[in-house]
Design goal:
Elements lengths: L6 H4 L1 H21 L3 E2 L10 E9 L9 H15 L5 E3 L3 E4 H5 L10 E6 L2 E6 L4 H11 L5 E4 L5 E2 L24 E3 L6 E7 L3 E8 L5 E15 L2 E14 L5 E15 L7 E3 L1
Parallel strand pairs: 1-4, 8-14, 12-15
Antiparallel strand pairs: 2-11, 3-10, 4-9, 5-6, 7-9, 10-11, 12-13, 13-14
Length: 273
């Protein structure tokens, strides 16, 4: 079934006004809300690593997007400089959009791939969600509290070497679709980002070693066909484990349930009639 276009999609000027109205609202929130946002950066790494992860820079996502993938690497390197070394003190909130700012040509950002309005298309700064995806994966392996997160409402490409569970990332669009988490602990945390030839790498560090850790898993993954349209669903769960008691699980919680439209034909699916 073909989805009906929103009014803002039919009239570009309405889309422009809607976006900047939301951006203005967010800017006012940043000024007047009671949150204390993280802004301190340092090259000195905190003593203990909680979690490390890497994601491949160049992936096959559909056809004819090689240049957008190459441009994405440039975008990632510009955005990562705003985050690398950021310290999140007790009581502080990390805001991806507040730290990175608006991606513009003037800042050196290039056309990269964006997922919006149910399709993949080129946009200035496209691809920097790869950083927010990585950071979210680090954060859910910690006691930090995610306070704002969005994910894509559709799945546009078949898995190509996917390592993380579907729906375990965090999409951003400056600035009203932000990724935020708050440090409600007594510890200080730090995010570090760097690049190898093939990967974006990142780690979450802490000032005091914890006696517990987290293990994140996927459950109930399925492709479904409903009324001629494909969908993908799963659940993301997290175990809290005591490090020094043979991995004893002391808590299990559901992180999120995902249900998204799929714009390709999956190999295996269940048809609901």
């Amino acid at each position: 079934m073909k989805q009906r276009k929103l009014l803002s999609q039919q009239h570009p000027i309405l889309y422009f006004l809607a976006v900047w109205t939301r951006r203005l609202k967010r800017n006012l929130e940043w000024i007047f809300d009671s949150k204390k946002y993280s802004k301190t950066k340092t090259d000195n790494k905190l003593d203990f690593r909680i979690k490390k992860h890497q994601s491949v820079l160049l992936k096959k996502l559909g056809d004819n997007n090689e240049q957008l993938q190459i441009n994405k690497v440039t975008n990632l390197k510009i955005a990562s400089q705003k985050i690398d070394g950021i310290i999140i003190k007790p009581g502080e909130t990390f805001s991806f959009c507040k730290l990175v700012g608006l991606p513009t040509k003037k800042k050196g950002y290039l056309l990269g791939m964006e997922l919006t309005f149910g399709e993949a298309r080129a946009g200035i700064g496209g691809g920097i969600c790869q950083i927010s995806n990585l950071i979210h994966w680090l954060v859910i392996h910690s006691p930090l509290t995610v306070t704002e997160r969005y994910h894509h409402s559709f799945d546009p490409f078949p898995d190509d070497g996917r390592v993380l569970p579907f729906g375990s990332g965090a999409t951003v669009f400056y600035n009203y679709r932000d990724y935020q988490f708050t440090n409600n602990t007594t510890h200080t945390f730090q995010i570090n980002l760097w690049f190898t030839d093939k990967c974006l790498e990142g780690e979450l560090r802490i000032d005091t070693e914890l006696d517990y850790a987290y293990h994140v898993t996927e459950k109930e993954h399925q492709f479904l066909k409903i009324d001629g349209q494909f969908y993908r669903k799963n659940e993301i769960w997290r175990d809290k484990i005591l490090k020094f008691q043979s991995g004893k699980i002391i808590n299990t919680e559901l992180i999120t349930k995902n249900f998204a439209r799929v714009t390709y034909t999956p190999e295996n699916y269940i048809e609901n009639k």
